[in-house]
Each structure stands twice: as structure tokens, then as C-alpha cells.
């Protein structure tokens, strides 16, 4: 009887025959609880129809842009994609910092790259939705209140220096911060993924009353290594470079999903979830699309990528829209200010007009408690160079691996 009602894929789970139903067997267009994409791939491989189409789809996405677009237009690839849209892979998502994050993201894009290639300038995040944390809100208020009054009477107020001192009092924070100050991208990602945000976020989002404090904040990510290059590439070229890496592409899509400027909200963030925007922003640090403060102004926060739109010709308007997603992003500015001053303090910035290109609609928020993330730290022996920009650091990274595992 159950089999008669199911028009999806069968697979074995914990010794029992299960069915992943297609949308048709749900009775009405509805939402299916997403699996993580590593598990979804395993389930697909248990079904001969799904696994054969999955192999075809991976072949369709191989090669350069021109070859890939031609392959995706073929009947065989379109047929495989149609079948896979009824598989567990279609609705799968990934957890930030999970053990097999890169594998999970590669599985996600093996389906969704075929659905969006060349059609959407902005892509939906492959990560599970971020649920606003009351703990985060209260911590940001405490953080802001702690830094606003100067710690010592008569001395200049420098919340960023106070944050650095707090980090140095924590052994893990101090050790990993010393590592990324000398090694760069790999260690920088390790720092933000391993150190509790209660210690790392005040270093990055501290409120600044003067230029000296703002300059310390700007140098938090060691921009000479992680952000600046001798040559400023086109922002569209930087975007293409980022899209060639599954992890960078995913973090960029996550940023556009959670930091898109949204009207009729207090912070200009989707559902006023500035926590989600800050998490997505931090996720980009250490990638080919690493953002940072563009100057040392304490009063006018401007975030940018290390790129320009000069010489982009007929694509200049598209390039400028992408660039403005960082430089004129009111959601991001308000999120930083809300954290620095505490979410109940400070004056929110003036709302910017939305970009010409808008991100896709946010997927529905799961009305269930967010699962806890266990064992999600990057392991010392993980691939030393996930992002292409750190390819020349492989020898040096052995040093930081030793430091981290020591």
C-alpha cells in the first residue's frame, strides 16, 4: 500500500526500505525536509535510476564554460536533470563548517549548477537557513555595552584593542590569531571557524570612536595577505574565479541570500536577522572573494572586495551592481553597527535603494529547532588549499598545521 502511494526513489535506511517521494506524491506543492548533500548522494547511489542519471549529470558539468553550456542543452543532460529533480539531491542542503563541507557543496552544485548556469546572477545559498539566536542578540548587547565606556578612565577608548586583549586571554584565540597573522588564508579560516564568535566577532565588528581604532579593525584579517593584491581584477572576473570553487561559490551565494537588502525591515536584513548576515560575511573571509573595510573611517563603514569595474564595457552596470552589494549594503552596515553597539543601541543607517539585480527568493525557514553542529572544526590534516589564492602557501601551511595541532 505504501509502495503504491510513492512515486519517488526507494532506498534502504537503517535496514528498512524507505521512499523519497517526488512532489507529485505529496498531494500539493509543498516543502520537503532537506537532507545534507553527502547523505543525499549516498541515497541516490542506492537507486540504479538515480545513480545512473547522477553520473550523466557529472559528465554534463565537466569541461569549460562553453563545453558545459553545450552539454547542458543536450537531451541526455536535460533528461538526467529532470529525473534528479525528484531525487534527494534536489532539496539537499549543507551545514556551515561540517566535516565533509566541501564534498557536500560539490554534491549540491552537481545538480544546481545545471539549473542556474547562465540564468541567475545571484544564486540561492546551499546552506541550511540561519536561525536568529537570542544568545547572539544578548551577547552583542553585552559586547557593545562593555566596549562603549572606556575600560580605564582618562585613556582613549579603543574597543578593538579591548577585543584583542580579550582574545589574548584565551589560549585558543591567541594561538590561532598568531597563526593567521603570519600564514594567511588557511589559518584565517581556521581562526573564524574554531574560535568562539564571542571572541572573534568583537575583533572584526568592534565599534570605533577614532581612526586608530578603525585602522586596527581594518587590519584584523591582515589585508596585505588575505585581501589586497598588486593588481585589482575586474569584480566580474573575481566573481568568475570564486564560482570556479565550490566552497567560495557557496559562501558568496550564502552572503547574497542573508545580506540582501530587504525593504520594510528595521535593519534592512531579511527577517531582521542580522546574525545571519554577519555569519555569511565572516564565511567569505579567507576565500577568493574576501571582503574588508575599505578605509579607516570610524564613522562611515564601507565594506568592499579588492576589485574594480574599470574596463568592463557593456557589463559595467552588472559589475557595479555586484560591487555595490558590498560597498552600499545597508543590511551589512546595520548588522555590523548592531553588533558593535549592541542591537538595542546606535542609530541605524539610511536605507540604500536596492540593486538592479535582486537575489532569488529566500527558501522557506524551517520551523524546527536548528540542529547542533558537532565536530565541525576543520581538521589539521584537511586539504591545505581549498581556495585557489592560497595555492602558493602550501609549504608555509605545514607550519600552521603543526602549530594548530600542537
Question: Can you describe this structure?
Answer:
With 406 residues, the chain is mainly alpha-helical. The protein has two domains: 2-116, Annexin V, domain 1; 134-405, no CATH class. The chain has 19 helices and six strands. The strands form three sheets. The chain has a two-stranded antiparallel ribbon with strand order 1-2. Helix 8 (159-168) runs antiparallel to helix 11 (197-205). The protein starts with a helix and ends with a helix.
What's this, in brief?
The protein has 19 helices and 6 strands. By secondary structure, it is mainly alpha-helical. The strands form 3 sheets. The chain has a two-stranded antiparallel sheet with strand order 1-2.
